[in-house]
């Protein structure tokens, strides 16, 4: 088999890149380790920057997003017993974010790919990347019957997330990585109940961080900070709802509608960046190259901005036979990545309880939050990062 771009991973970055390339007539094959149902069942991000929405539109996969996505003009920061609203739209000259689940983004892109008759091979194993330091790379994999296949290509796009094979295929010493683990995770719950508020509420509380989010006017998404080694089994629905409400201001707690959860999982928090994001004909994209803690809602949006830069480079490569865009990919992507890494680290540091910082750390957080919600300059800095920095 042969294709122009072999894409490893059928998450949002692989699917989006595939759809954009299809739009300019470039062939792709996507190799995915999991089943289609498993990929679609993973509940993750919920907040899209305008640039991400625009790119999904360019890929022809934004009809349902435009019809069902919820435009949000602000968020609230809750501390000291009350919620303080940040009017992001007013502070950024009219920008907003869109609340629309990653599960839906993935489904829309998959359906578009299937409707175009493009190939995705699910349930692959032993995916291996070869000869990407030269002009004739190829990928091998085993299908679900154990038969080995080989795909020759011009370029390999490593869109296979943090645990994928692409980054691990880079020769030792060619990568420099930067990492910070946080001593806590997020326990997330989905429930078919109306959200506590029409916008998101990020809460700093002495018992730990909490977040009120949503997927639709009938479906709520809530998170609470838990220790890094916590097991989800010890969290009954009752315990979750009690803990969530204890961490929210009284007015918000009273507005929480309780119901049975239909999804409950714990995600670890870490910051991670691997540099560079290109090795010859192999390009790392999205979570394969970087992870941010979810507090700033940036992971999926960064995956989309990497795709935007790589797509521009590949268009030049295939249309004009110019390498210039591909040569610039890593530096351009990383400049934006590090700003989001900084923002996500800052939001995480300001809003979570850190075991080691004690009362001094808590007072510093309170001072920072108080300053943030009362200073237009500080609120503007938060707002312009949250809605998404320019490309
Ligand atoms: P992934 O989604 O990880 O996709 C990689 C794909 O590659 C997977 O399908 C995987 O099965 C496949 N794969 C892996 N290894 C192999 C292999 N060897 N061979 C073949 N295929 C392979 N981001 C935001 O922007 N906003 C938010 O609000 C937000 N909230 C979040 C909340 C939580 C609880 C979590 C966990 C994450 C959140 N994120 C958020 C982050 C966001 O979900 C990720 O950044 C995003 O999924 C990255 O997309 P990706 O396509 O790069 O990687
Ligand atoms: C959601 C996730 C986030 O990380 C965030 O900052 C806001 C919302 C969500 O899943 O809805």
Summarize the structure.
This protein is of the alpha+beta class and 391 residues long. The protein has helices at 12-23, 36-41, 50-58, 63-68, 88-91, 102-115, 237-246, 250-255, 299-320, 324-351, 358-374, 376-387, and strands at 5-8, 28-31, 47-48, 70-72, 74-79, 82-87, 97-99, 119-121, 125-130, 138-142, 148-152, 155-158, 176-191, 200-203, 210-216, 219-227, 261-275, 278-279, 282-284, 290-291.
Key words describing this protein structure:
12 helices, globular, D-Amino Acid Oxidase, Chain A, domain 2, alpha+beta, 2 domains, HB_mOase, binds 3,4-dihydroxybenzoic acid, 4-hydroxybenzoate 3-monooxygenase, FAD-bd, six-stranded mixed β-sheet, FAD/NAD-bd_sf, FAD/NAD(P)-binding domain, eight-stranded mixed β-sheet
Describe this structure in words.
By secondary structure, the chain is an alpha+beta fold. It folds into two domains: 5-72 and 95-178 and 270-347, FAD/NAD(P)-binding domain (3-Layer(bba) Sandwich), CATH 3.50.50; 183-268 and 355-387, 2-Layer Sandwich (D-Amino Acid Oxidase, Chain A, domain 2), CATH 3.30.9. 37% of the residues lie in helices and 28% in strands. It is built from twelve helices and 20 strands. The protein has helices spanning 12-23, 36-41, 50-58, 63-68, 88-91, 102-115, 237-246, 250-255, 299-320, 324-351, 358-374, 376-387, and strands at 5-8, 28-31, 47-48, 70-72, 74-79, 82-87, 97-99, 119-121, 125-130, 138-142, 148-152, 155-158, 176-191, 200-203, 210-216, 219-227, 261-275, 278-279, 282-284, 290-291. Strands 6-5-14-15-16-13-17-20 form an eight-stranded mixed β-sheet, with helices on both faces. A hairpin with a 2-residue loop joins strand 5 and strand 6. The radius of gyration is 21 Å and the shape is globular. Residues 45-47, 200, 211, 213, 221, 294-295, 297 line the site of 3,4-dihydroxybenzoic acid (DHB). Pfam families: FAD_binding_3.
């Amino acid at each position: 088999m042969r294709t122009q771009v072999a894409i490893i991973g059928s998450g949002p970055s692989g699917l989006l890149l595939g759809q954009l390339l299809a739009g300019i007539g470039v062939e792709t094959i996507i190799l995915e380790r999991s089943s289609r149902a498993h990929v679609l069942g993973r509940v993750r991000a919920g907040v899209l920057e305008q640039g991400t929405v625009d790119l999904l539109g360019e890929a022809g996969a934004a009809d349902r997003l435009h019809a069902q996505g919820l435009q949000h003009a602000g968020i609230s920061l809750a501390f000291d017993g009350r919620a303080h609203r940040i009017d992001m739209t007013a502070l950024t000259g009219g920008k907003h974010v869109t609340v629309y689940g990653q599960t839906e983004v993935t489904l829309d892109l998959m359906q578009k790919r299937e409707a175009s008759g493009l190939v995705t091979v699910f349930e692959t194993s032993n995916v291996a990347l070869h000869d990407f330091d030269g002009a004739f790379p190829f990928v091998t994999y085993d299908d679900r019957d154990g038969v080995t296949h080989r795909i020759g290509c011009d370029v390999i796009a490593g869109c296979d997330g943090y645990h994928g094979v692409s980054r691990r295929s880079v020769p030792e010493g060619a990568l420099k990585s930067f990492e910070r683990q946080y001593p806590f995770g997020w326990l997330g719950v989905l429930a078919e109940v109306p959200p506590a508020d029409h916008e998101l509420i990020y809460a700093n509380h002495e018992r730990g961080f909490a977040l009120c989010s949503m997927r639709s006017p009938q479906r709520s998404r809530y998170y609470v900070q838990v220790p890094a080694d916590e097991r989800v089994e010890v969290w009954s629905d009752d315990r979750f709802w009690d803990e969530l409400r204890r961490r929210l201001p009284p007015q918000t707690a009273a507005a929480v509608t309780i119901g049975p959860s239909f999804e409950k999982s714990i995600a670890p928090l870490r910051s991670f960046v691997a540099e560079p994001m290109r090795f010859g004909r192999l390009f790392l994209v999205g979570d394969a190259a970087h992870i941010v803690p979810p507090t700033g809602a940036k992971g999926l949006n960064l995956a989309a901005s990497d795709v935007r830069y790589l797509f521009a480079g590949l268009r030049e490569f295939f249309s004009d036979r110019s390498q210039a865009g591909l040569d610039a990919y890593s530096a351009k992507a990383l400049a934006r990545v590090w700003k989001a890494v900084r923002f996500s680290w800052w939001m995480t540091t300001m809003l979570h309880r850190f075991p080691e910082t004690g009362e001094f750390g808590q007072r510093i957080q309170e001072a920072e939050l108080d300053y943030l919600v009362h200073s237009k300059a500080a609120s503007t800095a938060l707002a312009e990062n949250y809605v998404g920095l320019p490309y």
